[in-house]
Give the backbone structure.
Amino acid sequence: MRVRTTIILDEDILKLLKLKALEISESVSSMVNVIIIDAFREDASDLKAFDERKNEETISYELLLKKFQGKS
């Protein structure tokens, strides 16, 4: 199902989208759909990685920094 909507884009972003759409012979709408789907896929991949590492030991930033400073 396709649904029409309105989004407000920065002028420069719209220009880039239009130029890229012409370059690859696609519509701006199809490009925006692909960009959004890719963003959701990346989020899903990140969530999977977080889940896989949830039982790993954590270390504070300060402690990690101290470990690096000791290796000089």
